[in-house]
Amino acid sequence: MINLELVASVFICLIVLIDGQRPYFGGCPKIKSARNVKIDKFLGKWYEVERSFYIYEIPTSCTSVNITRPNNTTKELEVSIKTFNRWTRRPIESNGKATPKGDGSAVLDYRVNSRLPDFLARLLPGAGRYTLLATDHDTYAVIYSCSDLRFLHAGLYGDILIGAVVPGPPDTVWVLGRKPDIPVWARAEAYDKLVTAGLGTDQLVLSNRKNCKET
């Protein structure tokens, strides 16, 4: 007998995957991660300062990320992402878990908390592999993400808007800060790392932090 709940879950995830990612030929580019990253020092709260343009995030503002380790016996990290939808006037919170590839690794596999089976939860928007490109632990961090689908790689993209598909970058980048903004020297270092990695900075937009209640 067909498991209707499983079929429905697969159908929903396929819609989400198609609607939230756009495939590009070739695998993800090989990007070097940051060296000498101390994960324990990277824990704590970060504010989104800049990010790749993503049409779905136009109504969002005041985005922050809090990373914690529930206990010292596990490598798994808990991630809480908070943002505010300016259109609905409501806060939004997304939670998940990130696992470093190895000791001292700056590459983390992230999955969103979900009741779906693991192989389906991996397709949810936001799930995937995240690479920490640069950080000084205390001021700024640069994070890169790309979903490798073997012969294709997928990035976030726009939806159909006024009858036209609005494309976005195949790769997604975030510049984070321990404070809502970062010093000029930190932004220069972040940009330099992106240029060196071949990602560039043209796709970046300033995060909306107007009327945010920072804590």
Content of β-strand: 35-45%
Amino-to-carboxy terminus distance = 52 Å
Question: What count of structural domains?
Answer: 1
Q: At the fourth CATH level, what is the homologous superfamily?
A: Calycin beta-barrel core domain
Q: What is the radius of gyration computed over CA atoms, rounded to a whole number of angstroms?
A: 17 Å
Given helix and strand content, the structural type is alpha+beta
Determine the number of helices (DSSP H or I, runs of at least 4 residues). 4
Q: Unreliable stretches, pLDDT < 50, 5 or more residues? A: 4-25, 149-169
Strand order of the largest sheet: 2-3-4-5-6-7-8-13
CATH class designation: Mainly Beta
GO cellular component, one term: cytoplasm
InterPro entries: Calycin
GO biological process, one term: lipid metabolic process
Protein name: Lipocalin/cytosolic fatty-acid binding domain-containing protein
List the helices and strands and how they pair.
Elements: H1 4-20, E1 21-25, H2 39-42, E2 44-52, E3 60-68, E4 77-85, E5 90-100, E6 107-112, H3 118-121, E7 128-135, E8 140-145, E9 147-149, E10 152-156, E11 160-161, E12 164-165, E13 172-177, H4 184-196, E14 204-206
Antiparallel strand pairs: 1-10, 2-3, 2-13, 2-14, 3-4, 4-5, 5-6, 6-7, 7-8, 8-13, 9-10, 11-12
Model description:
This is Lipocalin/cytosolic fatty-acid binding domain-containing protein. One of its GO terms (cellular component) is cytoplasm. It comes from Polyplax serrata. This protein has 215 residues and is an alpha+beta fold. The protein has one domain (4-206): Calycin beta-barrel core domain (Lipocalin), CATH 2.40.128. 18% of the residues lie in helices and 39% in strands. It contains four helices and 14 strands. Strands 2-3-4-5-6-7-8-13 form an eight-stranded antiparallel β-barrel. Strands 1-10-9 form a three-stranded antiparallel sheet. A two-stranded antiparallel sheet has the order 11-12. The longest helix has 17 residues, at 4-20. 27% of the residues are buried. Residues 4-25 and 149-169 have low confidence and may be disordered.
